[in-house]
Amino acid sequence: MNININYDDCIGYGCLECLDICPKTVFDIEDKQLIVKADSSCCGCRVCMDVCPTSAILIEY
Questions:
Q1: What string of DSSP letters covers 1-17?
Q2: Among 1, 10, 33, 60, which residue has the least CB neighbours within 10 Å?
Q3: Cα gap 43→10, rounded to integer Å
Q4: Which 3 state secondary structure label does DSSP give 24?
Q5: CA distance 20 to 8
Q6: What pLDDT is recorded for position 55?
Q7: What number of helices (H) and strands (E) belong to the chain?
């Protein structure tokens, strides 16, 4: 699975909805910016895409 974050749209440290809801702890914060720390752990549930208020996350299979 490939997880892409559109940093132009991502609110990052001001939001963190995806970080809080991800059941597999795929995301983390580094230098106040959201990062994908373990895309191999992604289960493909796409809940992060659903909660993102700016549609900044895209999961591709």
A1: -EEEE-TTT--GGGT-H
A2: 60
A3: 21
A4: coil
A5: 21
A6: 98
A7: 2, 4
Average pLDDT over residues 22-43: 95
User: pLDDT band at residue 13, thresholds of 50, 70 and 90?
Assistant: confident
Give the β-pairing of 2-5 and 33-36.
unpaired
CA atoms within 13 A on the CB side of 32: 2
In angstroms, the CA 2 to CA 53 distance is: 20
CA distance 61 to 53: 22
E strand or H helix that includes residue 44: none
